[in-house]
Every structure is written in C-alpha cells, then in structure tokens.
Protein: Probable DNA 3'-5' helicase RecG
Organism: Borborobacter arsenicus
Amino acid sequence: MRPSLLDPLFVPITSLAGVGPKIAELIEKIVPADISARKARACDLIFVLPHSVIDRRNRPEIALAPNGAIVTLEVTIDRHQPPPRGNRSVPYRVYAFDETGEIALTFFHANAGWLEKSMPVGAEVVVSGRMEWFNGRPSMVHPDHIALAGDADGLPLVEPVYPLTAGLSGKVLRRAIGQALERIPALPEWLDTDVARRQSFPGFADALRRLHSPADPLDVSPDSAAWRRLAYDEFLAGQISLALVRATVRRAHGRPLVGDGRKITAIRNALPYSLTCSQTDALAEIDADLQRPERMLRLLQGDVGSGKTVVALLAMARAVEAGGQAALMAPTEILARQHFATIAPLAAKAGLRTAVLTGREKGRERADTLAGLESGEIDLVVGTHALFQETVRFRDLALAVIDEQHRFGVHQRLAITAKGEAPDMLVMTATPIPRTLVLTAFGDMDVSRLTEKPAGRQPIRTITLPLERLDELIGRMRDAVADGQKIYWICPLVEESEEVKLMAAEDRFASLKPVFGNALGLVHGRMKGADKDEAMRAFKEGETRILIATTVIEVGVDVPDATIIVIEHAERFGLAQLHQLRGRVGRGSKASTCVLLYQDPLGETAKRRLSVMRETEDGFRISEEDLKLRGEGELLGTRQSGTQGFQVARIEMHADLLETARDDARLLLARDPDLQTKRGEAIRLLLYLFGRDEAVRLLRAG
Ligand code: ADP
Ligand code: MG
C-alpha cells in the first residue's frame, strides 16, 4: 500500500482549484508520465517542468522602455477610454503614466467591468508585457500581468514557461502546478548523503520549487543542480525497480535446457542461406544460457534486417528439444502473422507443431489453440498481447521471446513470465540503442548483438527530394513499377489523431490511384485484421506494387523484394523512426532506394536529421546522433517529455548520472534487499512518486 504520507499528491488533478474536466483533459496532454491508463494526478503535474522563462526583470520607466522588449512598468492609472458604443473593433484603452510619460494599455474585446476593477483610476499598478512604440507613442497590448502595486508579489519577475497545448493557458497551468507543489509533504531524504553532497543536489521539494519559481533563467536549465537532482531521482527509481524485477525473475530458479540438436540441425538445413557469424555467436551465447540452471535474461540487439527472427526460432527449437514449449510475442498483429509465416514452414521441417494467437483468432480455432497449448500438443506459439490473457495456459513454457521489447512494459514482461515455471527470456530489439539507454531501459540484462548484415546485401541509396518535385518522383516510380519493382509509400506522421493519419493515407491513395490503378495497395492501423493481412499478402506476392502505409509498417515488416521506400514529410519523423522505416528495404540482393520527401523550409534539426540519413546506414551511429539532436527546442510548445519513458531526465544531458544511479541502486539493494531500513522506506516513497510502484509490489510478493 502506498504510504499515506503521499496521499495529498495522489489526488486527481480535478481536485485542484480551477481544474475542471475540460482543463484536466488538456493538462493530460502535456503531462510527461505515461498515464494513458488512468487520470492525471497532482504528482504527475509537479514533473511538468518549464522549458524556458520570460524574463520580466527589466523595469524601466516608460520613456526608456525599448520597442519590442518585455518589461515590467510601475504606473498610475489616469483614465479609461472604452470603445464607442456598438463599435467593437476599436480597442478599449487605459491610459497610465509615470514621471517620464504616458502609455496606452490596449485591450481588444475587453471586459469593461474587469478592467475597471483591476485598474481603477488613480491606482498605482504594476503591468508586465511587451512594449510597442508606434509613431512615437508607447503602448502595451494585452499586458501579460496586471497587479495593484501593493499586491505585486504574485507577479513573477522570472516567469516559467511550460509546454502548452491549444486551449490551455499558461496562467491556468501555473496555478494548477502551484497547488500541486503546495501539496508536497515533508519527505525524508532518500539520496545517499555522499552522492547528494558530491553533486551539490538540493532536496527534492527544494529542487522542484527552484524549477517552478526560478529566480534566474539559468535555474530552469536541465544542467541546473535542481533539474539534475530530479533526473537522478528518476534514474535511481528506474534502476531500483529494474533491479527488483530482475531479482524476482532470477530468484525463481530456472532449469537447464539441453537438447540433442536434431531439431536445430533440421531447421538450419532447411534455411536457404547460412547464418552470419554474428548470428552464430549470438546463438552460442543463448545456448550457453539455456543450458545453465539459472534463468536466462538476455537482450538480442540487432539493427533492422540483421536477421533476429531466425535466431529466435533456433533458440525456441532448443527449448522444444529440451521438452518445453516456446512463445514468441510481437507488438502488432501484422508482425505476429509475418513471424508466423516465416517460422511455421521452417519449424515444420523439424517436426515442431506451431500456432498463432492474436486478438483475432476466435471461436473454434482459438479454442483449439488454447487446448493445444495447455495439453502440450503445440510446441511453439507466435502471438501478440493476446498471449498475456488469463485464458492462455501452457503445459510447460520454457522460453519466452519478446520482439521489439520497448513496446512492452515491465509488467507485461512479468505477465508472460508467470505463464511458465520461470521460463527463460529472450528480448529482441531492433532499436540500436546506445549503451546508456540499454542500461535505463533494461537494467543489467545480458546482451548479444548482431553486428553484421547477412551477406549479399546492397547498400541503400538515400535521396532527399522537396515535395514540389513530386511529379518527377511519380514518373520514376512508374518506370520502377514497369520494371517489376515494389515500393512502400509511407504517409506523413501526424500527431493529432488516428483519424487524421487515416486521412493522410487515404488522400495519398486517392491521388495515386489514377496513375497506378490496381497496382496500388493501402494498409493502415484502422483496418480490420483480415484486411490488413490481405493488403500485406497482395503486396508480398506482387499483386500490388505500391503499398501506401501509415507507420504500422514501421517495425519488422519483411518483404525482401521491396526496393524503394518513399517517406512523405520525412522532416516530421525522428531519426530512429526514419532508420526503422528505411530498413524495410535493402533486405534482398537488389539495390534499393530510400526517398525522403520533404516540405520546405526545413528547420535546422530536420535538415541535420535528413543529412545524417544520407550519410550513414549504421544504426548505432544514427542512434547516437539522434540522442544529440533530440531535446533541441524543436518540440517547443508541444509535449516535452524526457527521453524514453522518463518524465524529467534527458538522457542526452544527464547520461553521466546514470551509472552512479545504477551503482547506488545495486549497493542499496545488496544491503537492504527488501527496502526495510530507514533509507529503504524513503526509497519506497521515491518509487511511488515516479510511478515505479509495481516494483514495490514485487517486494511483497517475493
Ligand atoms: P530483423 O532483425 O530486422 O528482424 P529479419 O529476421 O526479419 O530481420 O531478417 C531480415 C531478412 O534477412 C529476412 O528476409 C531473413 O530471411 C533474411 N536473413 C536472415 N538471416 C540471414 C542470413 N544469414 N543470410 C541471408 N539472409 C538472412
Ligand atoms: Mg524483426
């Protein structure tokens, strides 16, 4: 149970003054925590950090206030000049003065009552906003702040600027955050004294206050001691929870999985290629793990197209040889089916009995699969989240393989683990995450890497093309189709909604249809499963030659003879995603091309991203560049969360803290594995604050 000390922070944000259901919905858009499954709470709000400040410390006299500058003026109200009756297009003006001159405070569509009340004639007021000089006359249109001189404490001279979303005003958000901050109870320090001293960290609540009420623009920099303190807290919470998960997983003893090698040999003989050295090495590492009595917890990292699927298949074959069952889980239905299509025929060669299980299998078919898994008639199952469901029972799950891990959370990892008696785990990711990120996302997993591509792969030519030259591109596509090639066309990434995404894809489909007719296919997230399959099948078998797709195609989809990928509005995609998408081609022996179609003018970061894509195909280099480029202001005004599931930490800025946090976590748990000491108790608070409480539940269970 959550310590009651934290209760004031764990209230829904709607219990804050000025936050109704509508505002709450808007605030939820900018809350950095992943709260998709629940309502935002006050403790989510405290981690919405400002990305910059408005400096209002410039307090000149009227005559000396420069045009365009943000200033704070102390003035006396002279007179009000409402617009003539019936003419709302003329603004309401309030004239005010100081020793040096007069200024017009200008309001359009004003609420006269409110203006009279907040600026009575003769009153001394403080106003802050942007100066405008026109024909030698100063004015300030809609001052950001107005306060009576005696009352000006509330006027922030260094005003934090938060990420905003349409419809949510900075004032409303600031007020809500302010209330959340007031709810922070007196908390014991959970940091190690030495670490805190060495890093000059302020206390937790102190750090938050400094960031939300900055005294200086430097205070809100991610480099500041306050921000770093919170980043460290978050890393520490993450490392501790990963370590606890790992300890639980390890505590349950595994068993040695040893086989006679016959099934593996049968599969290897059926492969139309020989394994790369990396694949062979990875398999040897996996095999060694499987043979040990401890459980395997291994990450298989390999760039797109490096051939992870076959490694997974051979590992699963080993588990079956040893008398157990194996499951492969994919993040999407398309992927699950594609894996199944690859794996089933090869597995059949070794006499393995396979099945597929997604949300779509229904009725008889589903019942048969469930029965087969429970009785052990099925050796190997490929599926989606559906495999986590309670109705799914295995006779003896010995190995669980999870593809594209970052889409699954820790609890889902645990859920599948619970389906067997301490099954071994192999986690596969195509994101060539830099070392620092492996640590944050996976903790201390063992890592195998596929560092080479299968032989015979041709480099992918990457070109950038402005959208104005679309006609030229379509001409070239026509030639390519006549030449028998296959083309992916990826539709622009749109934040707004699934609806808009759909529109983008359907519009493009409609505009290309007259040119390409029946050679054109379409697949998107809103399609029914069967229709998606059909679209993929038609493309794979060459009935369609051009596949318009939303980013459902992003991970793992494999059509080896597709040779061209066009990415529309490439400037809207992140580097990692562009790299993933590009990896859809260049999988066969033919030369491939990636066309990055962009809309001018390009921002600096977008320009840099596209040129990185032209320069290199090396996933590791790309991910390092990605880290460098991220967080560079381009997100301003939109959701500005930290990196990869972090609320406040920014890997690119705070990576140096990560290893310290890991060591700290290790030492702590070595001394106090159940978090029973005084510091342990404090650490529990930390875990709750950063939403890592599932780890606390493990403590109980274990
Ligand atoms: P990823 O690592 O992206 O999941 P896949 O497992 O989908 O890659 O493999 C990409 C393609 O490479 C598939 O078409 C697969 O059949 C092929 N492949 C895998 N291993 C080899 C190999 N050693 N030699 C040649 N082709 C291979
Ligand atoms: Mg894959």
